[in-house]
TrEMBL record:
Stored PROSITE patterns: ABC_TRANSPORTER_1, ABC_TRANSPORTER_2
Tagged with keyword ATP-binding: yes
Native organism taxonomy: Bacteria, Bacillati, Actinomycetota, Actinomycetes, Kitasatosporales
Signal sequence interval, chain numbering: none
Region (Disordered): 283-330
GO molecular function, one term: ATP binding
Annotated ranges, domain ABC transporter: 25-265
Key words, A-Z: ATP-binding, Nucleotide-binding
Gene3D superfamilies, per the entry: P-loop containing nucleotide triphosphate hydrolases (3.40.50.300)
Species whose genome carries this gene: Streptomyces thinghirensis
SMART domains, sorted: AAA
Highest taxon above the source species: Bacteria
Compositional bias annotation for Low complexity: 294-330
Name the UniProt record assigns to this protein: ATP-binding cassette domain-containing protein
Amino acid sequence: MTSKTAGTHGAVLADTVPEADRPIVQLRGAGKAYGNIRALHGVDLAVHPGRVTCVLGDNGAGKSTLIKIISGLHQHTEGEFLVDGGAVRFTTPRDALARGIATVYQDLATVPLMPVWRNFFLGSEMTKGPWPVRRLDIARMKRTADEELRNMGIVLDDLEQPIGTLSGGQRQCVAIARAVYFGARVLILDEPTAALGVKQSGVVLKYIAAARERGLGVIFITHNPHHAYMVGDHFSVLRLGTLELSAARADITLEELTNHMAGGAELAALKHELAQVGGVDVEALPDEEPEGSAPDTAAPATAAPTTAVPGSAAPDTAAPDSAAPAEGKA
Ligand SMILES: Nc1ncnc2c1ncn2[C@@H]1O[C@H](COP(=O)(O)OP(=O)(O)OP(=O)(O)O)[C@@H](O)[C@H]1O
Ligand SMILES: [Mg+2]
């Protein structure tokens, strides 16, 4: 399998396999300094259509900084940022949106008291009639919002209800459906499951998978390796602003990923400490020098963080026909 693209873009939709091998968004040795604080350094990342790239890392690891670069809020101060193979430097989030990169922030920018359908079109309302008497096309907006939510498998009883009455998980789902409808090719989700319970997290993960099925490239920021592993095709772990691990799904198990996130050695030390306290069940934590996982102070393990192209990393859930519907939308 070669990763060369045919060159004709969008002409032969059925022939999506070579297209899928070209990243939509790519970072090469990218970094960001805030004054003399280096928040991010030497990061390689590739986002492919129809794949979920998970960015993991502890608090302060640089996850938000990374997506702020891609979403146009901040500019990188080192390395390269490419979209469709060309170098870019966004100055506002509008630049990113214009290239099909949509970001769903954790504090969703919704108006709680407005109905669901109104929030769906917030800032991009449908109108009808000629200019002086132009007015909102309410019927069409309601119908479209309803269709689009159903297309993503989201069933709400009543689109007239204020969006503030939906659960956090449901609001995330509406935001995902909205981004898909408005032609996003890349969807960035900043910790969408962080504040959610088990069941609601499951719902959000389901729609992440649905977005992938529709051919979007998804960047899923999380500090939960279990959530990442449920939907991820590629895993990038940040630590103190650098890429500690970049691995395709085929090359890493959930245990290894969890160990990387926690830092096997740190967990073992914690186990030792907690064991002295009493009343804490430490059995499940790994022992000092856990088998098969190098301490995280060693050189970057597993896959070398060079140009992180996962190759044939598609999991069983990623259908080969996934790119077609989203292409038709844009
Ligand atoms: N605007 C800023 N000015 C100065 N330093 C910043 C700024 N934003 C982030 N940083 C620093 O950059 C580092 C990475 O922060 P970032 O917010 O990207 O981490 P994060 O992985 O998103 O963490 P969290 O899980 O807490 O959201 C931190 O040390 C932070 O203090
Ligand atoms: Mg953050």
